[in-house]
Amino acid sequence: MRRVAGERETDQHAAYLRIAAALRDQLSGAQPHAPVPSERELSEQFKVSRMTARRAVALLESEGTVYRRPPRGTFVAESRLILRIGSFSEEVTRLGHQPQAVLLDASTAKAGDRVGAQLGLDPHAEVHVLHRLRSVDGVPVALETTHLPGALTPGLLNHALDGSIWALLRREYGVDPVEATAKLECLPLDDRAASQLAVRPASPGIVLTRHTRNREGRCVEYAVDTYRADRTAFEVTTDVSPAAVRRAARRRG
Amino acid sequence: MRRVAGERETDQHAAYLRIAAALRDQLSGAQPHAPVPSERELSEQFKVSRMTARRAVALLESEGTVYRRPPRGTFVAESRLILRIGSFSEEVTRLGHQPQAVLLDASTAKAGDRVGAQLGLDPHAEVHVLHRLRSVDGVPVALETTHLPGALTPGLLNHALDGSIWALLRREYGVDPVEATAKLECLPLDDRAASQLAVRPASPGIVLTRHTRNREGRCVEYAVDTYRADRTAFEVTTDVSPAAVRRAARRRG
DNA sequence: CAGTGGTCTAGACCACTGG
DNA sequence: CAGTGGTCTAGACCACTGG
Asked: Which runs of E-coded beta strand occur in B18-93?
């Protein structure tokens, strides 16, 4: 069998992969939030340096199996939330958890070229921009940046913005989101996002870029949301018929 | 400002983050496949140990900015392919690239409890299982595991399986996929997947678990596909109306 | 103040490639 | 055979928390 660079003759897998696999096995039956052996303990137990034990734990962390809470230690993680594209509040509630929103920043300003193009508005049109931190059962899970056309939602910033925005749109403004187009990509979190989500820099994140439309096909929301990839997954249902593919191609121009 | 554990008084950011940011800047104007300075060069240039320079490069690799080709060096990556949920062949072609498929394994067997439940079939029903490696312009990008009900696609394994399966379904069997439900999650690639996709173990991956249905709502395909997260993103269009949410809830039971 | 994870050093040997 | 990335060692100091 052909070997890849760096793979030793004597070890089928690198030590850190062997340790990660052993730990994964060991923890598979454990309760969420149960303690995981410390890096120093693992380095003794597996007779490797701490840097090598550390790599194994980092791997489990990036796959969402464990989480670190310095300086208390490392613990078994809960399983991921499977969210649908839509209202964070409604989705988290549906899954039997408690959603929270903290408004980090809210402002009204001219759309500008970039946001205007995304919302299908003149660059001089007014747009509300909300930055919110979303949590589940008190644990930070996502950062939202939401752009809403000011003409559709006059006085938005006077409402309470720590709940479901979609509920507010429907109730107060008669704006009814019915279709969304979203791009999902997997990226390491930058310093700022990692800090706000209370995870280490470069932890895996899911960046969801979304355009939401009402029944008339008008874009009523443009959002860029960053989710912790270790805590969330997305489920989508989509039309894959050739007709839908052609429609999407037209929308894109 | 409150500091998190491990952050020094004197450096706003860790050295590896500072180096990553500098490199990101430096490479932003570079052509894809241009060489990136070696880890040893970076460690001299930034006056850090090679392990620290290495962490910076690893970060850029995980965000898809560079790729490593040992022992030749590290190079600037191309931008991600934005795929829709559907036919890999059709999507890659639409984006102006050349799709390839290599059949790794094909077999027909009883569904069993797990796959049977996913396809809505009796555990004793026959199912075709295909394992394929998908590439774009010669670069491996995804691993597909596709399950198809044998009753819908008799003799499937006698056809050429190195092209679009959906085209084959439509053309040879009159099976027409019109709707898909997919779960997307971000996971580090395991050893086997990483090796087949020619990336390092634990590189970021997107695991797409998909149920595809025909116009009658029958599940005609159950697939688990693993994509390189550094090379791909997904775009989906989905119904987000309350009615659709209720429909999805009913489907799930 | 013991113990944790976060970061970092200054080396080492390895397999492999391409000139 | 020079140079690359892959892995690893055996330490070090740090900030922080909780008993």
From this structure: 35-36, 66-69, 73-76, 81-84
